[in-house]
Amino acid sequence: MSDRSSVALLGVPRRARQGPNPWVLGLVGALLGAAVVVIALCTECDPEAVGREWSWGWDLFMAVSFLGVAALISVQATGNRLASVLAVAGSLKLLEMDLSHYGQPVAWQAARMLFIAVVWQAALSFPLGDPKRLGWILSAAWMTWALVGWGIRFAYAEPASLAAGTNAVAKEGTPEFAQAALDLVPLFSNVLIVITLGLLLTRFFRGDRQTRRSMAPLLMIVPIVLLTVVDEALVTAGLVDEAFLSASSWAEIAALAVPWGIAAGMIRSRLWGGEVARLVLAAEHAGSPEELERVAADTLGDPTASIGLVRPNGDVVAVDGRPFPEVEPGRVREPLRVEDHEVGFIDHIESVPRILAEQTATTIALSMDRLRLQTEVRAQMAEVVESRKRVIEAADNARRQIERDLHDGAQQRLL
Asked: Which of 156, 168, 67 shows the shortest CA–CA distance to 113?
């Protein structure tokens, strides 16, 4: 796999994680504690000072959800970028919660827009670990929307309208182009939402069985967005007097669906549960590299997956000894490492979840090393057997030679 891949999960001693990362868990605890202390110390603050019909407890629950899933991913795959993105989202939610509590509408608006941009980047980063190609472009577009949109609202919007958490209202005397810019901020976000959901659905339908299994829980965002549209359409058509939930409330629910959808997708991705146990058992009973290759293909859900072996001279060969072809577009190679030495790799399609590929590669690498040790022991035993045969054969030859010498000597004396 390329240098952008995350660190192997198990099997490399200096990088392995045998339990929860204390630094990650400590950071999560510190952030949560700091947020609660800030609110507790502000005895005169109004918890609904900035644009909320819900309490700060809901925000705290959302922050815990993001930080908790970030810690979970960090424990399972050290260095995975998705964990960092979720941690940033959780931290921004804590900051947004405190700014709301202290009644800082302009700063709160900045934290909120950045939070939304980071949440969509997290959705685009699953299950591969980073957004990939068009996803990076969309992530940059979301960040541009957050920064530029906040700048426009900061310059031309009434702070009171920002505090209400609804559409920004222009200040008196604002030029027409500024009013148009304020109107474009929510419109641009709606366009980005449509494009982002379209990309997620495309990845889902074009992905293999493993990818669809992982992404299915995350796509609960789609019905939530559709309910938001239907809710607003009913109010616009006059069929109902008021919306069931405000647009901001629907947005909060959609944001909360991201960490929980990712956590559910990771559980469904066969990384945890019986599949890992079956992988270990199947690899343990494999008696040849060819069998290990079949185990890897079955675990990854990629029938085209293959194993490349690195010879001492640096040549790369397939398990049957043929030269291994160059990497093809749309495929990646997960290294097989034993004691920091790369002994080969697994070549598989790009859509395989990275954490699953790391787990499979680690197990296969250990099994490959086991086969190597077994082969060496068998070779040494065969050498001992051959040496014993040679000793026995030499003794037999000597015995026969002595018998011939004795026979020839006795025959000469008789003559």
From this structure: 168
CA distance 18 to 195: 40
Q: pTM for this structure?
A: 0.61
10 φψ region: left (φ > 0), alpha (ψ -120 to 50), beta (else) = beta
* Helix 354-414 × helix 274-285 angle, to 10°: 20
pLDDT for res 6: 32
pLDDT of residue 234: 78
Residues of the chain with pLDDT under 50: 1-21, 43, 47-48, 53-54, 271-273
Q: For residue 357, what are its two tokens? A: 């590929």
DSSP single-letter state for residue 170: B
Mean confidence (pLDDT) of the chain: 75
pLDDT at res. 141:
92
CB burial class (10 A; 0-12, 13-18, 19+) of residue 206? exposed
User: Do 364 and 295 form a contact (C-beta atoms < 8 A)?
Assistant: yes
pLDDT score at 387: 81
Number of neighbours of residue 308 by Cβ within 10 angstroms:
21
Q: Distance between CA 82 and CA 69 in Å, rounded?
A: 10
**Which residues, 6+ apart, have CB-to-CB distance to 74 below 8 Å?**
21, 24, 80, 83, 87
Residue 306 DSSP one-character state:
E
Q: Nearest-5° angle of CA 215, CA 125, CA 20?
A: 90
362 touches 221 (CB < 8 A): no
With CA atoms as reference, report the closest residue to 124 among 78, 225, 193.
Answer: 193
pLDDT for 195 equals: 92
7 CB neighbour count, 10 Å cutoff: 13
Q: What is the largest CA-CA distance in the chain?
A: 142
Report the 10 Å Cβ neighbour count for 61.
Answer: 12
Using left for φ > 0, alpha for ψ between -120 and 50, and beta otherwise, residue 395 falls in alpha
* CA 54/CA 246 separation, integer angstroms: 11
